[in-house]
Amino acid sequence: MRRSPKPDLPPPPELPSFRVEPDVDDSREEPSILDRHAGTQLSRHDAPLEDEAIDADAAKVVRRLERAGFQAYLVGGCVRDLLLGGRPKDFDVATSARPDDVRALFRNCRIIGRRFRLAHVLFGGGKIVEVATFRRNPGETDLEDDLLIRSDNVFGEAHEDALRRDFTINALFYDLDRRQVLDWCGGMPDIQRRSIRTIGEPVVRFREDPVRILRAIKFAARLDLGIEPYVYDAMVASRLELARAARPRLFEEILRLMRAGGAHRSMWLLWEVGAMAVLMPELAAFLDDDEATEDGSLRFFRKMDAIDRKTLDEGVLDDVVLMTALFYEPLEEAASGVRDIMGAVNDFLEPVIERIAMPRRIADGVRRIMTMVPRILQGRIGRFARTDLFLPALDVAEIVLHSRGQSTAPIQALRREALPPVTREHRRPSSFPRQRGARR
Ligand code: ATP
Ligand code: MG
């Protein structure tokens, strides 16, 4: 199924482009900078992005690397978001410099990662510009019998670094000096069509790393993009592979689906693709059985709307709030008519913890909030008003009331009482400092 882009969204501007010819003119003594990528099937697109939109510190990093004689480009999510007219969450740099070269150039730099070493250049306010050396997909010999990528730490050239990435829209490089987008895989036309396409065969790319299925859903939902039909079909066909992915990455990616203001569309796509039945069968079963749950799916998606609205108004919600809200109805069902709510919630969560590696800390929070919310909804607050989970529990109660189409005014009143007009402590800033997934 193809989700066509919304008609009211303007397409990004058509940009002039030209291809670097494979043959280098050897009458020149030194290859010019434009010949750098000769023979790599590169399309260059003139794309003068607004200077103000580009993070000044990231630009500084790129320029210093270039001055030292290395290639350096802005890459990935930031280029994609700028071209789509959005505000990037963070700015990443790809370079020909090795991590030690980067460290030698920047005092405020630390090398992270054991498997693949990356440089983090640190700036004020906790801002990090990530600088990664070009790398390529491991060759055939590095792959085990199956296709699952377990190691990806082989340095490479710029075009190889573009091609190892997941989606064409994520593989664009921005050349700051020449104000050009470098495109090795047709990402620019896909940006213009607002369309998600894997680099290479989708079934292969999803089998290599099934988390890419969740990433496709995240980008479609968050950026309001369409998914190419053959890519969508491959997502459906590959969904069972998700059971083989590293479980902490699954958990993190599920949170990301809910954090960025696109929870409703993300969960809808997750359900439709059939990935929800693999990752969270208790939720999929709940949504599948509308008759027994009396419009449970309607309530569920209204809950997701409430999450999206709160996220846009107030910033990213606490992970415990997101997880409790996500599973609220099935949890409520498991706990109904039971004296030992904690125990019932525990039994419900055990397989979830196992399947998607929900951290114990989050599971404990979910358990405690599940004992508080029914009492908050009945107006019986008691001693837990002073506990650290009271505000998160109020958030969940508000989301639940919203899903039932009931007034949330009582919750606002409780929140005002509990909280003098200061910043909400349990909120995490939505951009820098950033959180990173395990494998990138
Ligand atoms: P976001 O705005 O959510 O940070 P992003 O595209 O920057 O989106 P990151 O997870 O920060 O996503 O990854 C940075 C870049 O690394 C991506 O744009 C993509 O090019 C590459 N990448 C990330 N994850 C994968 C993956 N699983 N397989 C291949 N390439 C990946
Ligand atoms: Mg990113």
Tags for this model:
alpha+beta; disordered C terminus; disordered N terminus; 13 strands; cca-adding enzyme, domain 2; two-stranded antiparallel ribbon; Beta Polymerase, domain 2; binds magnesium ion; 19 helices; 440 residues; binds adenosine-5'-triphosphate; 9-stranded mixed β-sheet
Provide structural commentary:
The chain is α+β, with helices and mostly antiparallel strands and 440 residues long. The chain contains 19 helices and 13 strands. It has helices at residues 56-67, 77-83, 99-105, 158-163, 187-193, 202-208, 211-223, 229-238, 247-259, 263-273, 275-279, 281-288, 296-314, 319-326, 328-335, 341-356, 360-377, 390-403, 409-418; strands spanning 17-19, 43-46, 72-75, 92-95, 109-112, 118-122, 128-133, 135-136, 154-155, 173-175, 180-183, 195-196, 226-227. α14 packs parallel to α18 (390-403) and α17 (360-377) packs across α18 (390-403). The protein is elongated and about 75 Å long. The relative contact order is 0.09. The model is unreliable at 1-5 and 428-440 (pLDDT under 50). The chain binds adenosine-5'-triphosphate and magnesium ion. Residues 76-77, 89-90 line the site of magnesium ion (MG). Magnesium ion binds next to loops.
Q: How many domains, as an integer?
A: 2
Low-confidence blocks of residues = 1-5, 428-440
State which percent range the strand residues make up: 5-15%
Q: What name is given to the CATH topology of the largest domain?
A: Beta Polymerase, domain 2
Distance between the termini: 28 Å
Strand order of the largest sheet: 1-2-11-10-3-4-7-6-5
Based on secondary structure, the structural category is alpha+beta
Overall spatial form: elongated
Q: Provide the residue-averaged pLDDT.
A: 88
Helix content: 40-55%
Tell me which oligomeric state these chains represent. Answer: single chain
CATH architecture of the largest domain: 2-Layer Sandwich
How many β-strand stretches? 13
CATH top level class name of the largest domain: Alpha Beta
Q: Which value, in Å, is the CA radius of gyration?
A: 24 Å
